[in-house]
Design a protein that fits this description.
Rossmann fold, 181 residues, alpha/beta
C-alpha cells in the first residue's frame, strides 16, 4: 500500500498542502496523512503514518523537506521504517528505498547535506572569529542586565518575579539573577 504524507509549516500554506495532496493522490496513495506543523515541533500525522504502515508498504512524500528536519531526524525515520520493513519514496528526487540503488542514493544525499551543513557552520565560526579579532563583533547586548534598576524597583514595589518579567519583556530567570546578584 502507498501511504502519502503531506506537511506545511503554517496554515497560510494551504495551497502547498493541497498541491501535495493532489500529487500524492495522483501517485496512487491509498491513505493520506496531512498536517500543518513546524519542522521543529511535534509531527503527529507523521507518527500516525509510520504507525499505520505495515511490512511491504511504502510511505510517499513529494519532497524530502516535507518529511525530515535534519539528517539525524531522517536517519531515525529510515531506521524505524526499515525495522517495520516499510519503504520510503521521495518523489521529486526519484528515490525509493525499496531498491538498493534508492537506499544508496538517499544515504549519499544525506551525507552531502550533512557535509554542507558542517561546512556552513565552519565558515560561520571563521567569520565570527575574524569579526571578533577586528573588534566588529560584540555579540548580543545584554538586554536583561540593562534593566537591572527597573527590576529592583519593581521588586521593591512588591511585584512577583513573573510579573516583573512580563512587564519588562525579559525572562523570569533573568529577574531572578538580577535580584540575587
Amino acid at each position: 500500500m502507498l501511504i502519502g504524507y503531506a506537511r506545511t509549516s503554517t496554515l497560510e500554506q494551504e495551497a502547498g498542502l493541497e498541491a501535495q495532496i493532489r500529487d500524492l493522490t495522483a501517485l496512487g496513495c491509498e491513505k493520506l496523512f496531512r498536517e500543518h506543523a513546524s519542522a521543529v515541533g511535534p509531527r503527529r500525522a507523521l507518527e500516525q503514518a509510520v504507525e499505520f504502515a505495515r511490512a511491504g508498504d511504502t510511505i510517499v512524500v513529494t519532497k524530502l523537506d516535507r518529511l525530515a528536519r535534519s539528517v539525524i531526524h531522517l536517519g531515525n525515520i529510515i531506521a524505524t521504517l526499515e525495522e517495520k520493513r516499510v519503504a520510503l519514496r521521495i518523489e521529486n528526487l526519484k528515490i525509493d528505498t525499496a531498491t538498493p540503488t534508492g537506499k544508496l542514493m538517499l544515504n549519499v544525499m544525506a551525507g552531502v547535506a550533512q557535509f554542507e551543513r558542517e561546512m556552513m557552520l565552519e565558515r560561520q565560526r571563521e567569520g565570527i572569529a575574524k569579526a571578533k579579532a577586528e573588534g566588529a563583533y560584540k555579540g548580543r547586548k545584554p538586554t536583561a542586565r540593562a534593566k537591572g534598576e527597573e527590576v529592583k524597583a519593581l521588586a521593591a514595589e512588591g511585584l512577583s518575579m513573573a510579573a516583573i518579567a512580563a512587564r519588562l519583556g525579559i525572562g523570569k530567570g533573568s529577574v531572578h539573577r538580577i535580584l540575587n546578584a
